[in-house]
Amino acid sequence: MHPPAWSDPPFTPLEAGDPPDIGGYRVLARLGAGGMGRVYLATTQSGRRLAVKVIRPEFADDPEFRRRFGQEVTAAQRVQSRYTAAVIDAQVDGPRPWMATAYVPGPSLAQAVTANGPMPEETVRALLTGMAEALQAIHGSRVVHRDLKPSNVLLAGDGPRVIDFGIARAADTTPLTRTGMRIGSPQFMAPEQALGRDCTTAVDYFALGSVIFFAATGRTPFGDGPDTAVLFRIAHEEPNLDGCPESLRDLLRRCLDKDPEARPNATAIRAELTADADADAPSAGWLPDDVTRRLPAYATTPPPPPHPGTAPHMATAGTTPIGAPPRPYPGPPPGRVFPVPPPGSPISPGPRPPASSGSAATKIVIGGVAALLLFALIITVGVTAAHRSRSERQPPLGAAPSGAATNSGGGTNSGGGTEDGKGIGSQLGHYTSINLSSGYSVTFADDPKHPTDKVGESDLSYDGYAINANKLSVLPPGQSGNYANCLDNTRYASRLGSEYLIKGKLICATTDSGLVGLIKIKETGSEPTSYIMFDLTVYQGTPPTPGN
């Protein structure tokens, strides 16, 4: 799906609230939006571009939709044709289901005809041949498109691409469609769809006839107007084929037959176009010049967002998700204690560089080192004083807040210790059913049971699409959730998308102060806002080395 207008450039910049990545794919720009959701241009780590459709929350909340969506995605992944956009990846179980397909660098048929008028007859014949072959592959995988229309046909330099096949079926029995919301465009529906009857592959050939007539004339065969009027004409009146090329008129009339059994299939259509079924197949130069001149714009890199803080990015260690407050200058957050050298420990700036008598550069270096040593001394004194003040008014982490079950021992003890006497690997707290909404975060050492909106000062945050932390790792299925396994799993990331936020998934989060949180996902949802629910067990890890 692409923007409805013939725009230059063809991409819509990201806005505040758009995800910086989806399923690990970096989001570059918006491509469009429709009844099912919003579509983003994204890229893999190797640079391959994808079109990622994120399903609307209204559908995501319906279990039956998710079940059907999963079925249709699985079936769609089997479709192999040069005239379809291949389904590359999908996520059904996350807070917002999504599906990624190969990006097609070209406008939609709707855009091209709206901007430039009807297509030449040779282009229309090539379009019909390519679309018929696409439908043959789609139907061969036991998928019915159900929503074939000009905006779901993209025009690439080497032929058309049919997109979004089968997805409309997932919404057929959701509460939204049962209460009157329609998925599909009335002008391109078949009579049996308009009358609410069972749909077979024949509905796609009816839509094919309407789409080809639109490409050839710029009009629809049953006219425009209110949806109810158009649907009535589709169900009960004959199409108006005025202006249709004579060589295609009879074929399109049969595609638009009221009787599904009377419509030709893909094989018959291709054979009827010419004795040599490949003679009219799309090839280089198949599009009119006005459209061909536009194609390079769809292969360009989208411009960066105009406002700082909305640029898409792949979160890495030390970065902050879009919409989150900037991280403070690196240093111990309030209430955290970094081990410092005991009083009297020598502090060495390292080997002295060779002296250069009278050198101004040498004097600057010596002055800079002295300033750094003074700064380190000030920070050490300040942190120690803050810790003493905090310890006078707040119990240690092992004394968990109300609602948390604690365990002062347990876990594995490697023989190390911390300032509060807890051994490395010991359990400091266990918290159940934490609700973390989009834009909120938790701090393991404070009160994880009650998230706050201070994302930049936290240990774990959620932005509606992914969780973010200093170090995150996912325990393999079947592995027990404990400190030792968290310690052994070193495939770290600073951000985990919705594909990992699945019920029962075990995730380890290591903070910059050395605490380890074991997260067990219990639930995800989107009402009234996107959220995750999880249990959290906090362990005492290895504190950072002084100076790190």
Automatic annotation (TrEMBL):
Transmembrane spans: 364-386
Residues involved in ATP binding: K53
Annotated Gly residues bias: 408-426
Alphabetical UniProt keywords: ATP-binding, Kinase, Membrane, Nucleotide-binding, Serine/threonine-protein kinase, Transferase, Transmembrane, Transmembrane helix
Record-linked InterPro entries: Kinase-like_dom_sf, Prot_kinase_dom, Protein_kinase_ATP_BS, Ser/Thr_kinase_AS
Region entry Disordered, spans: 295-359, 390-426
Bias-annotated ranges (Pro residues): 323-354
Name this protein carries in UniProt: Serine/threonine protein kinase
Highest taxon, organism lineage: Bacteria
Domain Protein kinase: 25-287
